[in-house]
Design a protein that fits this description.
heterodimer; A: mainly alpha; about 0% strand; B: about 325 residues; Sulfite Oxidase, Chain A, domain 2; 2 domains; eight-stranded mixed beta sheet; five-stranded mixed beta sheet; 8 helices; globular
Chain lengths: ~220, ~325
């Protein structure tokens, strides 16, 4: 069974499959717009406040991809499927893709591309500040996601830098929690999943036997 | 002697095995088709909100109010599919689905408290207390969106004057209907229910404060607060309490639902004020449903001429 899974995971089509699957929320979102432009069919799914719909949609998928990216390492170890690592970069870049769309829906329809107004908003409002911080912290990770950058930075430093995603995950959950008025069930669910994923890392780093300092006695 | 009655059936009447088996096949494929149909319906229900709303009864509107704005009205579809009515779910599209079976007849509104003439009104009574007016108001939500709605009703002061408030009456407390069997979604709303709201007596007596029984020429749809609600156009939308069952005149400031939940975020007054922000977001701008970019929010939602005098000498930063 494991061999079979491994063969699927390492086949060259698996990446194409995961890519298309990750892109499908975007297609789902963009399709009514295409239909509207092509055949003037009224987009009904977006409801009375389409801007808000797109904001929530892209925000939701950013959080989901952040959590998916963070679950790769635990799943590799728990399922004994190290080949899952092949998808981690792609999932992380999809999180970045959806957060870029999310940020654009804030900068354009909300702020009217007024950078000055945006800065005032970011500085003044914790809910915006924390979301913006999470977004900014992902930028260096997206840039340094290539093989070349791993080489240039060296594995250890690259890994340390990419731990920033933990903070982005926290920022995302807090951002969502502060958006909601009183029904906190969904943000708490995302928070609980994030907590499990981060605690797993804490646990495994505490349990890992530390390299013994070279002893001087002979 | 036992009587044996011969059956009329002969062996020729036995269903041939092939037919019998094909019947099974038909049933199975019906099951699959049913499953697919159910899946399709479920998908549609998730993907698309119901397009139609149970038709309301036509109302006889006698007057067009001079308070009406000439701004473009939002569509009936927008106003009935984008609702904050936490008793029926916290998502904006929840009430349009979950409120469809809400029973609003018979209905009684009790007027009580510091008054000389307590009364219980049926909806028929309420519809006949005064001629119905159409009032097209701007409606601004504390969340930063707004709509323009042609409401139907008459000034709340009609019913308050009939009650003859005593000297002691200084505030009016309102209460919504609540039942966990009709509104199980309320249990997850995070707020304490039944929903309660309140106004200072002079605010309640202001002619702009509308006792509302309909919109768009018809009785109120359930998700918009049927059968009777308030509309207070210069305050954030949550002050305009829905599905009212009790109006009580009281001596001191009554508790209000959102203020109880987060006193720092939602004040008793909650007048629309672009200069006083919500702790988590700006109130300087709003998105009018149907528009892409945000527009500037007006002081008292543009009704300053009628209501600014109510707050003379008050620090509106303190009394937000």
């Amino acid at each position: 069974m494991r061999d079979f899974l491994r063969r699927i995971l390492t086949s060259k089509w698996s990446k194409v499959f995961v890519f298309l699957l990750s892109l499908s929320p975007f297609v789902y979102l963009a399709w009514p717009l295409v239909a509207f432009l092509a055949w003037q069919t009224e987009p009904t799914r977006f409801g009375a406040n389409p801007v808000e719909y797109v904001q929530h949609f892209t925000g939701d998928w950013t959080l989901r991809f952040l959590l998916l990216t963070l679950s790769v390492t635990p799943l590799r170890k728990l399922l004994g499927l190290p080949d899952l690592i092949r998808f981690r970069r792609m999932l992380g870049l999809f999180a970045f893709f959806y957060v870029c769309l999310h940020f654009l829906t804030y900068l354009w329809p909300d702020q009217g591309f007024d950078l000055h107004g945006m800065w005032k908003d970011v500085a003044k409002r914790p809910f915006i500040t924390v979301g913006f911080l999470g977004f900014v912290l992902l930028i260096p990770l997206a840039i340094t996601s290539t093989k070349g950058w791993i080489r240039r930075l060296g594995g250890k430093r690259w890994q340390a830098l990419h731990r920033l995603i933990y903070i982005t995950g926290l920022c995302g959950v807090i951002h969502y929690y502060w958006l909601v008025k009183s029904d906190h069930r969904l943000p708490l669910l995302y928070g609980a999943i994030l907590a499990v994923l981060l605690l797993y890392r804490l646990g495994s780093s505490l349990l890992k036997p530390r390299p013994q300092p070279a002893s001087a006695t002979a | 002697m036992p009587i044996r009655k011969h059956s009329d059936l002969t062996y020729a009447d036995v269903t041939p095995k092939s037919l019998y088996l094909s019947r099974r096949q038909v049933l199975r494929s019906m099951g699959i088709a049913g499953g697919l149909l159910l899946g399709y319906k479920l998908f549609n229900r998730i993907a698309y909100p119901p397009a139609t709303v149970k038709a309301g009864a036509k109302l006889n509107v006698a007057l067009k109010s001079p308070f009406s704005t000439t701004e473009k009205e939002n569509t009936f579809d927008d106003v009935t599919h984008y609702n904050n009515f936490y008793e029926f779910g916290t998502d904006k599209s929840d009430p349009s689905r979950n409120a469809q079976k809400f029973i609003t007849s018979p209905w009684t509104v009790s007027v009580e408290g510091e008054i000389k003439k307590p009364a219980k009104y049926s909806m028929d009574d309420i519809l006949k207390l005064a001629p119905l007016e159409e009032r097209i108001y701007r409606h601004r939500c504390v969340e930063g969106w707004s709509i323009v709605v042609p409401w139907i009703g008459y000034s709340l002061n009609t019913i308050l004057k009939l009650a003859e408030p005593t000297e002691k009456a200084k505030y009016v407390a309102f209460q919504s209907y609540y039942s966990t069997s009709q509104m199980p979604w309320g249990l997850h709303s995070g707020i304490e229910l039944p929903y309660v709201e309140g106004l200072r007596l002079d605010e309640a007596m202001n002619p702009l404060t509308l006792l509302c029984v309909g919109m768009y020429g018809e009785t109120l749809p359930n998700q918009d607060g049927a059968p009777v609600r308030l509309v207070i156009p210069w305050k954030y939308g949550f002050k305009s309490i829905k599905s009212i069952v009790k109006i009580k005149l009281v001596k001191s400031e009554p508790p209000t639902t959102w203020n109880l939940y987060a006193p720092r975020e939602y004040g008793f007054y909650s007048n629309v004020n672009p200069e006083v922000d919500h702790p988590r977001w700006s109130q300087a701008t709003e998105r009018r449903l149907g528009e892409f970019l945000r527009r500037k929010t007006l002081m008292f939602n543009g009704y300053g001429e009628q209501v600014a005098g109510l707050y003379n000498g008050m620090d509106l930063r303190k009394y937000y």
